[in-house]
Automatic annotation (TrEMBL), chain A:
Protein name: Spermidine/putrescine import ATP-binding protein PotA
Family from the record: Belongs to the ABC transporter superfamily. Spermidine/putrescine importer (TC 3.A.1.11.1) family.
Matching InterPro entries: AAA+_ATPase, ABC_SmlMolc_Importer, ABC_transporter-like_ATP-bd, ABC_transporter-like_CS, Mo/tungstate-bd_C_term_dom, P-loop_NTPase, PotA-like, Transp-assoc_OB_typ2
Gene Ontology MF annotations: ABC-type polyamine transporter activity; ATP binding; ATP hydrolysis activity
Catalytic activity: ATP + H2O + polyamine-[polyamine-binding protein]Side 1 = ADP + phosphate + polyamineSide 2 + [polyamine-binding protein]Side 1
UniProt superkingdom: Bacteria
GO cellular component assignments: ATP-binding cassette (ABC) transporter complex
Alphabetically ordered keywords of this record: ATP-binding, Cell inner membrane, Cell membrane, Membrane, Nucleotide-binding, Translocase, Transport
Gene3D superfamilies, alphabetized: 2.40.50.100, P-loop containing nucleotide triphosphate hydrolases
Source species taxonomy: Bacteria, Pseudomonadati, Pseudomonadota, Alphaproteobacteria, Rhodobacterales
Name of the top EC class for this enzyme: translocase
SMART domains tied to this protein: AAA (SM00382)
ABC transporter domain mapped to chain residues: 5-236
UniProtKB/TrEMBL annotation, chain B:
Subcellular location: Periplasm
Species: Paenirhodobacter ferrireducens
UniProt-listed Gene3D superfamilies: Periplasmic binding protein-like II
Protein name: Extracellular solute-binding protein
InterPro entries: SBP, Sperm_putr-bd
Keyword Zinc assigned: no
Length: 365, 348, 288
């Protein structure tokens, strides 16, 4: 696969103190689905808008299909954008909206009609061709916006928070639909979102951004299982953070002393004994030990809170030092609610060493 | 009956216009600027105990609409002699008790005898001031002084001519055509006058509508020749340091005369007659002559209060001058033909 | 009890404007319509039911002439206002970076509305006059040797003055319409390959059409009914329909003919308003 977008040391400084994007380099492969993920203000939208040509970087260069487009206006770039609130033209019909971007391509009337027809068919809304955007539901507008961008057969499709205006149910459905669409049309997708689930579900690669820089990038599972920083661990999924100290470290195995006990962890790089660290683990990777059962990492505590969320149970377990560990477990259907441990009951928890992340220093999540 | 319906309808229209309070002892006069000037009215108010509240008109055409839209607002009006008859025929004014006007018999007989202020042997108007619709030019624009109406048709003066926006323009054009019976023109003569005015139109800078406007036109150097209300605008221009000269063209000039009339049904009769007497006395006659530069109708009062020069300048001692003027006459049912012709000229 | 009170206050809320409309709009219109069928008879006019006044209006060329001239002037004023106001409003909304400057400039356009109409018209007299500001300027830069009289007392002066006086009524609705266009629509147009010019023609202009229609209607109707500008800066060929109506109600004392003219004028204005209303409504269905 060849690189389709190459961002080289891109910065956008609005003023010496207000920095949108800070020295970002990123390569997107042809046909990839890349998501820029981060909270608002992290620079992800600015980065996307610079790729689209709506903003110009203050430093760095943007290459699109081996051509420097850093200073090209949007209408000269072979990318198309699906805007956050779709930006459909209210004074045109659905058909005119979709055909709009074809008018400059010097195509014949019939050719345009065919392409519009195909694009609308692709998103399953051909029967709406004569309607105005205002007459459509949010999800339908979303699809029209997609059709309008795709019909131009761009090299890259940019999506700016494309699903944020939809309700939860529809969002879930559209996530899958768009993933399929991506597979079907084979165009490179670059999406911006602040929704980690969306990013995990849809992308080939997720780029987590923090304060204008790339915090970590990788396949969704990589990010989830091996967050490089507490920031990433916290932004993607839920993480228990337990402050502690390194007792010893041999090879990839480290022993950490935390307030409520000890943990062994598998680490990528050796740690200095005695240094302050923060251990982290996902709630669903923490399990309840049955009576008499043993495990490598055992934590003891009392049930402080029980949260029922349909799919399963989340228990907050208070350790000896007062810190809390959350543990998620699916509810087997034969387990009656009466079997849920009552508040205050003593429990033992276990977590496998390869499921423990260790971050240097203290973390205040 | 007809009148009742009309007034009813007009009353409804008048709802929107605020009317000054009609109070006993307060005279509401609808008149020309200068005719109730504080310079002499203040004294009258002190001596008589009657308060005077003046509303000014810009044209003779204002009297009828103002009186139509609801009676009982004004006590006294001063239409010109071409409009007085209309006021009488519209039943807006009441006959005067000339016995109550002590100087009545001193008024120039020529004015007292005018048809326009009488009906069925009764007087409805008290002649007050008079003058000529003279012509005027800027001294610095002419080497040979103009003497004829034809000078307002001189192509060399293109864009420098002004003419009063009034049916009077028909009188002017008719005289240029040699039709001297200007108040009894036939349809053909009116059409000829209309044609003459259309010929002149390209030369016209502006048809002037108010005295102030004509003064501004001369001041701004826009026009050099026009007709004028003799004595008035030339006085204002001289005060501004602009040298102009009035002249009576060889085709003659129209004369005008304004009369005081008492609005029908006024509750302020006593004050009204005190006011009329004052206006004929030296206080009123010289009051208006000094402000507006017009000649007055009572030579006895004029002689008493004017310097000999002023008396002479205002032609108060010159019956021949007065006789040479073609004093306006009511046009009656020919009125429409005149105004229609003039409107057609303006519409072109 | 409270129900009755609510009915009463509801009646007042609806009743007062209805009464107002009846008293100050329908009644006067009714009177004017009635007058228009009456007939002129010395010294005034008498009730009748005949169409003579209307026949006169359409057979005597002077009225048709003035009507056409008024239409021409009003259209010119609307077009001139549009050509000046649109780029200005566009610049304010899309190009002016400083919000402070934008507010300030917008107010600068609106502020003259607080100044008397007459005063503003007079100002143009001193600018356009033979010895006015414009002539002095042209002379000082050597463009002309002699002061020119072509600027004042003609239809050009009327169009200039009326445009100046009524242009706020064009700027305001266009500004509002442009401001309502979401920025991402022009971005979308650019994204879809349209250069700035085509994007303007296909997106910005059509979406601001309701503002243009409103502005054009306002300036047209205001100019159509104006009779001060002809009086102040118009020349001998500057008579407009409102002046003729004023003459009929004043000098000519022919209220029936004046009323008929007023009705014709009303019909013209209502036609324009309803056309523009239809256009605005069409634009509104395109609104968000």
């Amino acid at each position: 696969m060849a690189a389709i977008i190459e961002l080289e040391n891109i910065s956008k400084h609005y003023s010496p103190t207000i920095i949108g994007v800070d020295n970002v380099s990123l390569t997107v492969e042809d046909g990839e689905f890349v998501t820029l993920l981060g909270p608002s203000g992290c620079g992800k939208s600015t980065l996307l808008r610079m790729i689209g040509g709506f903003e110009t970087p203050t430093a760095g260069s943007i290459r699109l299909a081996d051509k420097d487009v850093t200073w090209d206006p949007p209408y000269k770039r072979e990318v198309n954008m699906v805007f956050q609130d779709y930006a459909l033209f209210p004074h045109m019909t659905v058909g005119e909206n979709v055909g709009y971007g074809l008018k400059v391509k010097g195509l014949g009337r019939l050719e345009i009609e065919t392409k519009v027809h195909d694009a609308l068919k692709l998103v399953g809304l051909f029967d709406k061709v004569k309607l105005r955007p205002q007459q459509l539901s949010g999800g339908q507008r979303q699809r029209i916006a997609l059709a309008r961008a795709i019909v131009r057969e761009p090299k890259v499709l940019l999506l700016d928070e494309p699903l944020s205006a939809l309700d939860a149910k529809l969002r879930e459905q559209m996530q899958i639909e768009m993933k399929h669409l991506h597979e079907k049309v084979g165009i490179t997708f670059v999406m911006v979102t602040h929704d980690q689930t969306e990013a995990l579900v849809m992308s080939d690669r997720v780029v987590v951004m923090e304060k204008g820089r790339i915090a970590q990038q990788g396949r969704p599972q990589e990010l989830y299982d091996h967050p490089a920083s507490p920031y990433v661990a916290n932004f993607i999924g839920t993480t228990n953070f337990l402050p502690g100290r390194v007792i010893r470290c041999a090879g990839e195995r480290a022993e950490i002393e935390i307030g409520g006990g000890r943990l062994s962890a598998i680490v990528d790089a050796p740690l200095v004994a005695g240094s302050t660290v923060t251990a982290g683990c996902r709630p669903e990777k923490v399990r309840l030990l049955a009576e008499g059962e043993t495990a490598e990492n055992v934590l003891e505590g009392r049930v402080a809170e029980v949260i029922y969320y349909g799919l399963g149970l989340r228990l907050a377990v208070e350790l000896a030092d007062g810190s809390r560990v959350y543990t998620d477990s699916l509810l087997p259907d034969r387990l009656a609610l009466s079997a849920v441990p009552p508040l205050g009951q003593s429990l033992r928890l276990a977590v496998e060493p390869h499921n423990v992340f260790v971050f240097e220093g203290e973390v205040t999540p | 009956m007809t009148r009742k319906i009309l007034l009813g309808a007009l009353g409804a229209l008048a709802l929107t216009t605020a009317a000054p309070a009609l109070a006993e002892g307060t005279l509401n006069v609808l008149t020309w600027e200068g005719y109730a000037d504080p310079s002499f009215i203040s004294k009258f108010e002190e001596e008589s105990g009657c308060k005077v509240n003046a509303t000014y008109v810009g044209s003779n055409d204002d009297f009828a609409p103002k009186l139509m839209s609801g009676g009982g607002v004004y006590d006294l009006i001063t239409p010109s002699i071409d409009t007085t008859k209309l006021m009488i025929d519209l039943d807006f004014v009441e006959p005067l008790d000339t016995a109550k006007i002590s100087e009545w018999n001193n008024i120039y007989k020529k004015f007292r005898d005018l048809d326009g202020i009488q009906k069925d042997g009764e007087y409805y108007g008290m002649p007050y001031v008079w003058g000529a619709i003279a012509f005027m030019y800027r001294d610095d624009a002419f080497t040979t002084p103009p003497t004829s109406i034809a000078d307002l048709w001189n192509p060399a003066l293109k864009g420098k001519v002004a003419l009063w926006d009034d049916k009077s323009s028909i009188y002017v054009a008719a005289r240029l055509n040699g039709d001297m019976d200007i108040y009894n023109l036939t349809d053909e003569q009116i059409a000829a006058a209309q044609k003459k005015l259309l010929e002149q139109k390209p030369l016209i800078r502006k048809y002037w509508a108010t005295a102030g406007e004509l003064v501004d036109l001369y001041k701004a150097g826009e026009v050099v020749i026009s007709n004028t209300w003799a004595g008035y605008q030339s006085g204002l221009l001289k005060a501004e340091g602009i040298k102009v000269t009035e002249f009576i063209p060889k085709e003659g000039a129209e004369g005008w005369m304004d009369s005081w009339m008492v609005v029908k049904g006024t509750p302020n009769k006593e004050c009204a007659y005190k006011f009329l007497n004052m206006q004929l006395s030296p206080l009123g006659q010289c009051g208006v002559a000094n402000i507006n530069g017009y000649s007055v109708t009572n030579p006895v009062s004029a002689k008493a209060c004017m310097t000999p020069e002023q008396y002479k300048d205002l032609h108060q001692d010159d019956p021949a001058y007065l006789d040479s003027l073609m004093v306006w006459q009511p046009l009656g049912d020919r009125f429409e033909a005149y105004t229609n012709a003039w409107n057609a000229v303006k519409a072109q | 009890m409270s129900h009755a009170r609510r009915n009463l206050s509801g009646g007042m809320v609806l009743g007062i404007p209805l009464l107002w409309i009846a008293l100050f709009m329908l009644l006067p219109y009714g009177i004017i319509v009635t007058f228009s069928f009456w007939v002129k008879k010395y010294p005034t006019f008498v009730p009748a039911f005949q169409f003579g006044n209307y026949v006169t209006l359409f057979t005597d060329p002077q009225y048709v002439l003035v009507l056409l001239r008024t239409l021409k002037i009003s259209v010119l004023v609307s077009v001139a206002s549009l050509l000046l106001a649109y780029p200005f409003a566009y610049w304010l909304v899309f190009r002016c970076r400083s919000a402070k400057l934008r507010t300030w400039l917008y107010m600068a356009v609106i502020a003259p509305l607080w100044v008397s109409y007459l005063l503003r018209a007079y100002v143009w007299k001193t600018i356009l006059g033979t010895e006015g500001v414009l002539n002095s300027f042209l002379k000082s830069i050597g463009l002309i040797d002699e002061p020119s009289s072509i600027f004042l007392y003609n239809q050009f002066a009327m169009v200039v003055t009326l445009t100046y006086i009524f242009i706020p009524f064009m700027v305001m609705p266009i500004y509002t319409a442009l401001e309502k266009i979401p920025a991402n629509l022009t971005e979308a147009a650019a994204d879809l390959g349209m250069g700035p010019w085509r994007s303007f023609w296909t997106v910005t202009l059509p979406l601001s059409a309701p503002g243009i229609a409103a502005g054009a209607t306002l300036t047209f109707c205001l100019s159509f009914g104006d009779f001060i500008a002809p009086f102040l800066v118009g020349g001998p060929d500057g008579n407009l329909i409102a002046n003729v109506i004023a003459t009929q109600f004043g000098a000519a004392l022919n209220w029936p003919l004046g009323s008929a003219l007023a009705i014709v004028m009303l019909v013209v204005v209502l036609t324009i308003v309803s056309l523009s209303d239809r256009m605005e409504r069409k634009g509104a269905t395109g609104g968000i």
